[in-house]
């Protein structure tokens, strides 16, 4: 939920002091962010301090106006405390106790929104502090300002080898938001990213918008999400009615967010840990895992590297087919930026050979090369599908390119909807 201003109250008509007809435009009320700051400046700082930093009545008009509330978190933009210069100078000189009072005033101004915590947002880095790929997509730039955000271990527990413990998960600060027909998503903001910009892609899966084909007979199909996260697209597939989503996710914080989200939305979720060699953790056999699956377990998320996704799912399919419980995989979602190319071969192996299906390939594309990139992706997926089926001329077909949002200047987050052929179609 984003808020910028509150609605002004109506005032009765009156005459101005010079007898002219009033404009009937009462002054706008301050948005909660500005109100909290004004309350602090008015009641907690002496006039001499305001004079020292040249803070006058024009300050509030020049402060950043945007903010986001993810209950119960108030997320401020990265420039909230650094612009304009006079405000930045004052904030820099505040003591820790004074800053605590400032944020307490801001939280009080947001009391109707249930806010208890404050943080500053920053873009998700593609690399970690050591220059390695940030495969966990951890929000290392998030700066907590007010409230207890949970355990702060080394590297915030963000490394792949530093998965959260059960105690970490219990102590962490969790937030939520609601999007797309009442779907609730939950995450721990200190450890997991949330992208509001994916809302349009979620809507496409739900049936709003163009280009998302092949989701008419959802009750008889399964979907694979190779980068399940906190359930960005998983929940939309479930809301659309697919029988089950098989997901892979390497970040333990995201897995827990997905599990909690499933619970609050009313979907059963089974979490299965995998080891570095692709085997199920604890010596669990695939047959034993299938034995314990419940009908209401609409999501099975494998907590581990998706390099072994096709091998694991092939074993699951073999067991479930013998029992008449298997629903063929018709869609594979590949939602990793800047590129999901490393998972394309696995995806081609998982799309049902007899029925064919779809791969939804998320990529960062140069805006000048989107059509060229579409041809390259389609050709490569066709080549991989030929290898999987053991045939020639397995022509893939990109049926739609969805331009989701601008990722950077000249770079567009695109989703390429690629139709993957079946054996009969070949």
UniProtKB/TrEMBL annotation:
GO cellular component, one term: cytoplasm
Keyword Transcription regulation among record annotations: no
Database matches in PROSITE patterns: SAM_MT_TRM5_TYW2
Biased composition (Basic residues): 8-18
Keyword list, A-Z: Cytoplasm, S-adenosyl-L-methionine, Transferase, tRNA processing
Pathway per the UniProt entry: tRNA modification; wybutosine-tRNA(Phe) biosynthesis
Residue ranges of the region described as Disordered: 1-31
SAM-dependent methyltransferase TRM5/TYW2-type domain location: 110-422
GO molecular function: S-adenosylmethionine-dependent methyltransferase activity; tRNA 4-demethylwyosine alpha-amino-alpha-carboxypropyltransferase activity; tRNA methyltransferase activity
Keyword field contains Chaperone: no
Domain of life: Eukaryota
Reaction(s) this enzyme catalyzes, per UniProt: 4-demethylwyosine(37) in tRNA(Phe) + S-adenosyl-L-methionine = 4-demethyl-7-[(3S)-3-amino-3-carboxypropyl]wyosine(37) in tRNA(Phe) + S-methyl-5'-thioadenosine + H(+)
Entry's localization field: Cytoplasm
Gene Ontology BP annotations: tRNA methylation; wybutosine biosynthetic process
Family: Belongs to the class I-like SAM-binding methyltransferase superfamily. TRM5/TYW2 family.
Role played: S-adenosyl-L-methionine-dependent transferase that acts as a component of the wybutosine biosynthesis pathway. Wybutosine is a hyper modified guanosine with a tricyclic base found at the 3'-position adjacent to the anticodon of eukaryotic phenylalanine tRNA.
Identification of the protein by name: tRNA wybutosine-synthesizing protein 2
């Amino acid at each position: 939920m984003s808020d910028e201003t509150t609605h002004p109250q109506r005032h009765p008509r009156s005459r101005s002091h010079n007898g002219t007809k009033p404009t009937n435009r009462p002054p706008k009320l301050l948005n909660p962010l500005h109100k909290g700051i004004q309350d602090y400046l008015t009641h907690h700082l002496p006039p001499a301090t305001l004079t020292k930093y040249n803070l006058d009545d024009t300050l509030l008009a020049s402060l950043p106006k945007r903010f986001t509330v993810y209950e119960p978190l108030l997320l401020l933009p990265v420039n909230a405390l650094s612009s304009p210069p006079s405000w930045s100078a004052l904030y820099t000189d505040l003591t820790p106790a004074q800053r605590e009072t400032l944020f307490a005033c801001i939280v009080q101004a947001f009391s109707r929104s249930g806010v208890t915590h404050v943080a500053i947002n920053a873009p998700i880095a593609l690399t970690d502090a050591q220059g390695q790929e940030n495969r966990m997509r951890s929000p290392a730039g998030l700066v907590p300002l007010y409230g207890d955000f949970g355990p702060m271990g080394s590297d915030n527990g963000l490394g792949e080898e530093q998965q959260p413990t059960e105690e970490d998960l219990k102590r962490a600060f969790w937030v939520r938001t609601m999007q797309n027909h009442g779907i609730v998503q939950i995450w721990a903001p200190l450890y997991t990213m949330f992208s509001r910009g994916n809302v349009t892609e979620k809507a496409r899966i739900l049936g709003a918008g163009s280009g998302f084909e092949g989701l008419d007979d959802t009750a008889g199909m399964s979907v694979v999400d190779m980068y399940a996260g906190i359930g960005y697209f998983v929940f939309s597939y479930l809301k659309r009615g697919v029988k089950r989503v098989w997901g892979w996710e390497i970040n333990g914080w995201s897995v827990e967010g997905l599990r909690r989200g499933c619970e609050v939305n009313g979907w059963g979720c089974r979490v299965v840990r995998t080891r570095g060699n692709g085997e199920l953790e604890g010596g669990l056999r695939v047959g034993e895992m299938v034995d314990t699956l419940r009908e209401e377990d609409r999501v099975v998320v494998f907590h581990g590297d998706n390099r072994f996704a096709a091998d694991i799912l092939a074993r699951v399919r073999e067991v479930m087919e013998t029992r008449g419980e298997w629903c063929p995989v018709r869609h594979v979602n590949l939602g990793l930026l800047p590129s999901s190319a490393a998972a394309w071969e696995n995806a081609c192996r998982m799309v049902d050979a007899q029925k064919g299906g779809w791969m939804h390939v998320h990529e960062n594309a140069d805006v000048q090369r989107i059509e060229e990139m579409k041809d390259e992706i389609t050709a490569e997926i066709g080549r991989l599908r030929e290898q999987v089926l053991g045939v020639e001329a397995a022509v893939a077909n990109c049926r739609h390119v969805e331009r989701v949002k601008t990722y950077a200047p000249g770079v567009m987050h695109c989703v390429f909807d690629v139709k993957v052929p079946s054996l009969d179609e070949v």
